[in-house]
Amino acid sequence: MLKKVQPKVWWTATAVLVIMLISWGLVRKNNADSPDVAVSGKSVKNLDPVAVTNPDAAMAEKIAKIEDIFRRKRIAGFNGNVLIVQKGKILYQNSFGFAHMKAKDTLTSDSRFQLASLSKPFTAVAVLKLIQEGRVALDDSVQRFFPDFPYHGVKVDMLLSHRSGLPNYIYSFNDSVRHGRKYPDNLDILDWYAKAVPTPTPYNRPGRSFNYCNTNYCVLAAIVEKVTGDSFGKYLNSQIFTPLGMQNTYLVTDTTIAATKNRTDGHQYGRKLEKDYYDEVVGDKGLFSTTLDIYRFYNGLTKGLIIEKNLLNEAFKPRSFERDGIRNYGYGFRMHIKEDHTPRFIYHGGWWKGYNTMLWVCPEDDAVIIVLGNTYNRSTYDLRELLEVVHGSVKIDDIEKDI
């Protein structure tokens, strides 16, 4: 049958196909150049904050005060990037110091910092997305995914809220268990827990109390890999980073040119800190990102682009009340709560190998503060004076100096 088709017909069909492919390519290019971000059929204009060229008097006063605060922080040793946004407008954005102390190369807004525990909100959102899709449930036990896991009664919601009672993997294993293996990954950690004799002692019974522990988020990242069949980094990239236009966020384990571009080094006492034994365990840490990408992440979340808002509200819901106080933890997010147990401030910080980071959000004031440092310095977490400028002194009268 095909042999009877005339050559002219074949050439015509081929030409039409080529034209269609070129047209499709142009559409793809135009879409790539567009500032729109589309996720699951939803679309918003650019997720980036807006630069303010002519601030009014009130904003100008805020900006001047913030500039003075960071001038003094720099004198105190702060080395890093900062982005402060209120009502979608940039109050302040700046870079201080060097990406690599030895090279003395100046930080820029594109410099990428290891987020340390600020990686945990990303892990939580990845898991919540799988919950939304029905592939994981909050009351699933770890044994559903890893039958040999030796701690029974630990459920996904306990991992998310640090209520599992699990021991910290960083301190759990001696050399006889590790057998000289350097740079273990998440599955290695789960395997060690399954085979270690005796089994490392848990901190508490599952669900009994809050105990912040990196193992929770190591296990959650492993669950994401088991359920999806993808590496954790690939899943984050396809389901969160790319949809939100986060082009500067990668896992530490990604060694491609695109991933390592603009990476900074972590420093302490003026010297670079070398790779840590547990650097390739991710989920609890391990993301490199920029201030702007972190803002895109939060902005996209609040617009319901990754998970539905009712599920995001569950992430922002406090879940530990064993101790009185304003501090609490939801699913991957810390918070300061009001008397009615709703969050007044939502935040997460991090420290790892010289990096210290902070994301601070005030939903009522629609304000977002992002501070990323790569030379360990307590001033990164000393936010009280800054919060007085952004939120007003009355609103932060009971907040500790060091968050």
Explain what this protein looks like in three dimensions.
- This protein has 403 residues and is an alpha+beta fold.
- Helix content is 34%, strand content 17%.
- It has a 7-stranded antiparallel sheet, sandwiched between helices.
- The radius of gyration is 24 Å and the shape is globular.
- The model is unreliable at 1-10 and 16-38 (pLDDT under 50).
Instruction: Give the termini separation.
Output: 76 Å
How many separate helices?
13
Query: Which structural class do you get from the secondary structure elements?
Result: alpha+beta
Major beta-sheet overview: 7 strands, antiparallel
- Taking strands numbered 1, 2, ... along the chain, how are they ordered across the largest sheet? 4-3-16-15-14-13-12
Please bin the fraction of helical residues.
25-40%
| β-sheet strand percentage | 15-25%
Order of helices and strands: HEEHEEEEEHHHHHHHEHEEEHHEEEEEH
Residue-averaged pLDDT, rounded? 88
Number of separate strands:
16
Shape: globular
What would you report as the Rg, rounded to the nearest angstrom? 24 Å
Question: What ranges have pLDDT less than 50 throughout 5 or more consecutive residues?
Answer: 1-10, 16-38
